[in-house]
Amino acid sequence: MRTISVINQKGGCGKTTVAINLAAALGKLNKKVLLVDLDPQSHASLGLNVSFDEVELTTYNLLRDPRTKIEDVIFRIDDSMDILPSSPILSAIEQELAGKPARETRLGAKLIKARDRYEYVIIDSPPNVGLLTFNALIAAGEVIIPVEPSYFSLQGLHRLRETLELLEKETKHKVKVHVLINNIEKRTTFSRDIVAELERYYSAELMDVTISHSVKYKEAALRGMPIFGMGRSDRLQREFISLARELEEKVSFLQMEDIENWMIRLHGPRIVKEGVLFSLDAPNAENVYLTGEFTNWSREGIRMIRDEKDGLWKITLHLDPGEYEYRFIVNGVWINDPNNMDSVLNEFGQENSLLII
């Protein structure tokens, strides 16, 4: 599953238009696609005629409630594309999750559990840098940055590159960057000058395909459909099909082993062939034990083994489907799982980590 965030700190660069029509174009290539609306303005949802008033659950519930799964929020668009719709209440999520563990990884933790359902996940991100944007970036292996031919859009690109460098430095998570020239009128001298500057500074990241300016995008959004449902838009349809094909031809720079190691560090327990793998990054610990409902909260717990290869403490258990509360015991101190976003309060008012199989 390839996860691609469409992002730009500057509004009005056609970010949502690119997300909707790229997802639809990948569907035309017989790919199974999930479009994630992570913008409180809900433009990707509205652009596909999905109103937050008509759906029971949205990306707000997905990020807020540990028991809400991807399949609970999915809204079917057609045989090739689903959407996780948004709503304005999503704007409150940053305040509600303040101080919560692993709050920047909540989207990625949910998406990785749906990796067998989709070949592509396209995330429409909000036009700012905050908790939602960091969720979109950490969940993704790649980003598309739409840049319209304007000075302000170029400045937005420069600032976003700085944000991505900061993300890599702080989390060790690197994303592949694709810069997409969008909404361009190639006949103007100014547009050609902007393209020349992009080629000068971002030639390695610049996509070959460009997307033309057209009022058809606004008409399609007004009708709640991708450009492929519009008449007299053959050129635009060809451009998005070409964009999808160019992405298909680009081999992901991440090796599978690197992705697996990243997911272990990022999302805590995960299903493996042998059972459920628990892991903890505790480099200074002398001993680490796992305890929970599956041990009847034994004070001794189950001894975890430190993996000399990556330095993580690990244990794999065979557990039946269900819900399990658990904690780690590190040098005799009980702690919750810092890499698991899902937690519930116990009878003592402390947080237990929650595993849902």
- Beta-strand residue fraction: 15-25%
Topology as a string of helices (H) and strands (E): EHEHHHEEHHEHEHEHHHHEEEEEEEEEE
- Count of individual beta strands: 17
CATH superfamily of the largest domain: P-loop containing nucleotide triphosphate hydrolases
CATH topology of the largest domain: Rossmann fold
Q: What's the number of structural domains?
A: 2
CA gyration radius, whole angstroms = 22 Å
**Biggest sheet, in brief?**
7 strands, mixed
By DSSP (H or I, 4+ residues per run), the number of helices equals 12
Give the CA-based shape: elongated
Question: N-to-C terminal Cα separation, in Å?
Answer: 20 Å
- Low-pLDDT runs: 253-260
What is the CATH architecture term of the largest domain? 3-Layer(aba) Sandwich
Q: What's the helical proportion of residues?
A: 25-40%
pLDDT averaged over residues = 87
The side-by-side strand order for the widest beta sheet comes to: 3-4-2-5-1-6-7
- The CATH class designation of the largest domain is Alpha Beta
Tell me about this structure.
It is built from twelve helices and 17 strands. With 357 residues, the protein is of the alpha/beta class. It has two domains: 2-249, P-loop containing nucleotide triphosphate hydrolases (Rossmann fold, 3-Layer(aba) Sandwich), CATH 3.40.50.300; 268-356, Immunoglobulin-like, CATH 2.60.40.10. The strands form three sheets. Strands 3-4-2-5-1-6-7 form a seven-stranded mixed beta sheet, sandwiched between helices. Helix 6 (106-112) runs parallel beside helix 7. It is elongated, with a radius of gyration of 22 Å. The protein starts with a strand and ends with a strand.
